[in-house]
Amino acid sequence: MSTKSINTIVDRRDGKLAMAHFYVAFIALAIGGLAGLLQTLVRSGKYELPWGIGYYQVLTVHGVVLGLVLTTFFIMGFQLAAVSRTSGALTDKQRMTGWIGFWLMTIGTVMAAVMILLNEASVLYTFYAPLQAHALYYVGLTLVIVGSWIDGAALIMAYASWRKANPGKPSPLLTFMAIVNTLLWIVATIGVAATVLFQLLPWSLGLVERVDVLVSRTLFWYFGHPLVYFWLLPAYMAWYAIVPKIIGGKIFSDSLARMSFILFLLFSIPVGFHHQLMEPGIDPAWKFLQVILTFLVIIPSLMTAFSLFATFEMFGRSKGATGLFGWVKKLPWGDARFAVPFIGMLAFIPAGAGGVINASHQLNQVVHNTIWVTGHFHLTLATSVILTFFGISYWLVPHLTGRVLTKAMNKLAIIQAVIWAIGMTFMSGAMHAAGLLGAPRRSSFSTYGGSEQAAEWIPYQVAQAVGGSILFLGIILMLYIFINLAFFAPKGEQEFPVGEVADAAEKTPMVFENWKLWIGITVLLILFAYTIPFIDMIQNAPIGSKGYKFF
Amino acid sequence: MAQPGIGKKTNTKVEDQSSLKGTLASVFLLGFFLIITWVGVYFLFLDRF
Ligand code: HEM
Ligand SMILES: [Cu+2]
Q1: Can you list the pairs that A159-167 forms with residues at least 24 positions away whose Cβ atoms lie under 8 Å?
Q2: Looking at the partner chain, which of A353, A356, A363 has a beta carbon nearest the beta carbon of B45?
Q3: Which ligand sits closest to the CA of A220?
Q4: Local confidence band at A337 (pLDDT 50, 70, 90 cut-offs)
Q5: Any idea where the domains of chain A sit in the sequence?
Q6: pTM, to two decimals
Q7: Which fold has domain A12-444+462-539?
Q8: B29 touches chain A (CB under 8 A)
């Protein structure tokens, strides 16, 4: 028997640690949401920013605060809570490690934020060279990453003590998933840490004059693609292992869920070139190879789709549903904990279709650097992932604060998600359409000298502003619900749902916990996909670029 | 007493509870959607380049 107690309630002290992460995440949502609204208004051509604030400064705030801060903090908080719930309370040492990680991340966030607000770092959240920010911006982002590693260390320590106490047993599914995502994050962030520490920081400090742009961008995208899976996998944790419990069904297959997570670990890293298809200096053969590896990620994605449909259908049929789609009606549409993530799942259908298009070299030529891409990741990240995170918050926040999600809040939560879906249909739909007509992303309003083509984009930009305004309303609602659940909702016990596996499912084999094997294959794939291209880039490097500050 | 219904064949097919045909249909629809959108942009590409 396990020596650690496995509770159905997250330990209060672990709950505080998770909540600390969530406070930062939701403050980020407020700031970033306002920035997003301003962007759509500016791009409509009907509004100008006051006090000489630049568009790209606002866009940097939006990208950093939502793409990097909100996501990382929410994910770390959620994973800490999930591990504590399924593998037992953290030890004092593990919890202390988590707090150190949290504070480092927070200090780093504040440093980066101050530099952006002082207009010393309007280089967007991707900080591509040769745009050059103040050194403290890079230091701040480095601290965020180092802090997240330390948070990750706390998770790995907790996992190791569970394994020690339960020899020969597969770890709890949610813990396993959190560990896969943590490993993915650690392997991925090595790339961005390398470009920041060895290239951008010395260069912004003036220690070296020039920077190799291609190497830096390649290291960034070595990190940038797994970054999107780092965002997505916590949503998958909820879809695979939590939503089945919420609807009263069973997990379709524990092994299938673990298998798909392992496949994401293997195939989400050696694929960064699919963001660099239009870039000179990389041999097309290697781009081709990485595109093939990218397409392999479709396999676990479709496995996920299948498994979710199956979970819902099995549940519906157990409730007496008949016909091809009768089970849809049996799902608990009035329960925000289900309905909100479900809207997120639906959004993933067009999101995934867009992703396959982006990754196809020829089609990438049609959409590259257009606002289509922005439309795409507002479906993946800003709808599928974010609505799932909201759906998680609706039970996790009251669970951690000893409160309950009331009927009124539940209803408001569903309204919130519907508003989000409507706003995003307008904004993202218009972005996709304008992108196909050639409208660029990351661009303030311009008529491009009265160009006819640019005039075609304007109605779509107005539609984006309409969508953006609706979305901003959604953000205000979400903040209201969060504050209610954190501070004002009635006291009580809100369940932390953890799914059980269907009786008919196969026993989980231990091979999934063989980290030497999985990390070994991950490293081999990375070496295979990147070694020769890197040697090429370095051997044939042009003279580097000086830094540019356009702000 | 005559038992109504006995001897009459019941016509209602009992559906197998473990049937996953809705799932099969759903993933097929999903697959078609992926193909249609992809081909759509592919024709845009052919048209432009
Ligand atoms: C009120 C809701 C939102 C609105 C109105 C909005 C609007 C926008 C717009 C207009 C852009 C592109 C501007 C351009 O390329 O010139 C943008 C970029 C972006 N958005 Fe949002 N967004 C919203 C919510 C979110 C959320 C919730 C996330 C993430 C969790 C997010 C992440 C991003 C990122 C990462 C970028 C890219 C920034 C860049 O290109 O540097 N957005 N957003
Ligand atoms: Cu990618």
Answers
A1: A159/A83, A159/A87, A161/A4, A161/A87, A161/A91, A161/A94, A162/A2, A162/A4, A162/A87, A162/A88, A163/A513, A165/A2, A165/A3, A165/A4, A166/A2
A2: A363
A3: 2
A4: very high
A5: 12-444+462-539
A6: 0.92
A7: Cytochrome C Oxidase; Chain A (1.20.210)
A8: no
